[in-house]
Amino acid sequence: MTRIPSLCLFCGSRAGRDPAHAATAQALGILLAERGVKLVYGGGAVGLMGISARAAKAAGGQVVGVIPRTLMREEIAQVGLDELIVVETLHERKALMHLHSDAFIALPGSIGTLDELFEALTWRELSIHAKPILLLGANDYWAPFMTLLRHLDAQGFAPDDLFDIVEELPGLEALAERLI
Q1: What is the CATH number of the domain that holds 88?
Q2: pLDDT tens column, 149-171
Q3: Number of domains in the chain
């Protein structure tokens, strides 16, 4: 198992209705700080992403945010990060997040989270990177997504190694084992 020095977080700019998602985001930030794993994320102070970033910083972790100039007000750029990189476009944001990370993890989120996740999956399928892609969500959040992937596979549209390039974690403990 390879060490993961930096982990890119894709997740919601909202906290969602289930408080378990916010608790998971907070616990993730703390875990990364405790394990010395740099958190790379979208740079916002809102939603699950802000919760994770603040928790990581409060626990002594290193946090790098990448935020498009146009979202600095909407997502409220998080203050107090080790580095906040301001870019012009969402495409630049994703490219820099990929560049600064050794693995990806997706927590619950909406369309933006899915966009980031699908791009990471696509780039992995095309061998642009070989970084782990992990899914973590309370109360079976990713179950419908995994059902969709199984459907793609059953219909013959998925790559043969689809379930080798994305891993749904059963809980934070499984991530902790990966971050040894």
Answers
A1: 3.40.50.450
A2: 999 999 999 999 999 999 999 99
A3: 1
